[in-house]
Amino acid sequence: MFTRILSLYIAIGLALPLSGYSQSAPKATSDAASQWSWGGDIRARNEYMNNSLTLSDDVLGHEQDYYRIRARLWALWEPCAPLSINVHIAAEPRVWMESPTFSKQHPGQGTEWRYAIIDGLSVRWKQDIGDSWSMVSNIGRQDILLGDPGKWWLVADGSPSDGSFTSFFDAARVTFENKASKTKIELIALRTRAMPDSNLSILGSANTYSMAEQNENGLILYATVEPLANLSCSGYFIYKHDDKVLSSGDNADIYTLGARIAGTPSEHWSYDAEAALQWGEKEDASLKWSSAGVGLRDIRAWGANASLNYLFKDSLKNKLSLSFEYLSGDDPNTKEDEMFDILWGRYPRWSDSYVFSYVKETGGRISQMNNLVRIGPSWSVSPTATLNITTTYAILLAPESTPTRATSPALFSNDGHNRGQLWQLVVSKQFTKHLSGRLCAELLSQGNFYANKDMQSFVRLELTTRF
């Protein structure tokens, strides 16, 4: 696998020499107050997985091996100090060595040409409004990530069906910030669509691909205050309305009320904890188990997510962490829907492979995590300033033994709560200012929640050039 991705990267390097580009600094135009900058990246990623999608090695297509070659360009224009205009464009063809033969999109080996899309087009305006307050307005296609970097829980990816190709939202976002009191209040209205050509034109065909399973509208109120130098407190209210487009989509009105705290009580310790309650109603045409039958059901769900970290503060930057997460599952014996909806948090937050295992469990929806207890430690170390190694172990459990939205019920025992054990290794390396690499390897031993006790495996190797 390494030799294949290395040869692919060499080809990219010949087409785009590293020495010929650098990260662009703002360049002045004829107007001294106006400036612009530009840049981009090319990511060559090889992914191999076994049993993550099929949950069994007796099914055709249980092995998948493919390249994802993502190219992105961006430009930023600042015609005047408070105003900036951002434009991003991305494309990601795939080259298949082992393909899921049951899939209509890619029935065999070869190159799968996908569309190019404008994944960013927004106007940003910043101004002071008195009494230490400032206001930032951002309207258009943009990324929205709420929470600490790498720990975004419910709002991070507006296009989960295309993986890490894009993650944008079509939204209007207004942020009020008071630096004196360390208070930030955000108001967000968003409108995402299932098909990639719904709001903006694309280059290529979108006939067989989608960004999500339904059209989605949302309102978010998110407030953060830092009452102490080592303490941050957040509260939020999120409304999400779903209009079904694909057969795997939902019709739903979901209300989420949550809170989050994070702090560093001492030099070596840090923590964060978040919890949320959900209510509303959801229609689930694929429901097979509940006595409620088909139709709208009241949502009664909750989730929690926390971590405790010890930083050694030594020359190797050793760090130990203990993580916990709970996402309620749907009880098949009640009329209510207890399945926690992860909202726009459907991305590989803690596992690259396990997000695929939910496809058979949640009506064909990737990374629709729910019915989960996750607990386990991780250890990270940086032998050099440009190298980081992280190992993780996690025990995965299912509060409910029956996945009520399973498209293939025979793949689940319906009599067990043990999802399995996850082992993960992630190695990140910054080779040069413009070239970085990443290796991720995962193993999951399936527990008695599944009908088969097969091993799930995943390996990802990537190189990224930034210019």
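Next protein, fold it too.
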Amino acid sequence: MSFKNISLSTLLFSGLLAIANPANATIVLFETSQGDFEVNLLDNHTPATVANFLAYVEAESYSNSVIHRSMSNFIVQGGGFTYDREAEQISEITSLATVINEPLFSNVRGTIAMAKKGDDENSATNQWFFSVANNAGNLDNQNGGFTVFGVITTAEGMKIVDAINALTTYNLGGAFTDTPLQTEPTEDSPITDEHLVIIEAVTIIDANKDTQPNLPPVTSAENKDSDSSGGSNSLLFILMLLTINFLRRVAK
């Protein structure tokens, strides 16, 4: 078939399909003391962050880990500490190298993002958090933006995270100033797994990166706002110019 018979609309449509192709994703299962839920990771759009997270998953670093922070109608945070049932002790999870920030998607309800130091946008390691509200206006712009790298797959799964967020929090000292507990502690007894919200395991249940999640919206940062209106028009214009030049070359 001659290139001369290919229409401009066909080439434009093909180009748009390539650009609009949604992210591939790995699915992981969070097994917690409050219930189990699945998270679809956004491998294609946040590859470094997903690879970092999966390194901890494959090392079983998140097994018997603790939800150490919960802020009402804001976030539920974990990934920093594990609980040893035999020794009844909490220990820090050994962190790997920091990962580069990839703030593409908005921190809306149901997303998981990396936690990091307040003065370094590329300081994320092992800690992460779920947004239980639309935090785009705050977290998309703060400290270079927080990298969303996955989404909770079902409404039932979101209810579990909401239930954790609804638990009463306690100041246990150190990094545990807003720790949700399943049962109220007493003064004369230690904090154990009966009190803590424990993530028993995070495991890969679908390693096929062709699974398609419902993508969250693109970040609401100021430099992305213009892209949502004029950006798409500019993209179409560039595609048209490239296609016209291509057709001129093949027509000669």
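About the second fold: Residues 1-23, 222-252 have pLDDT under 50 and may be disordered.
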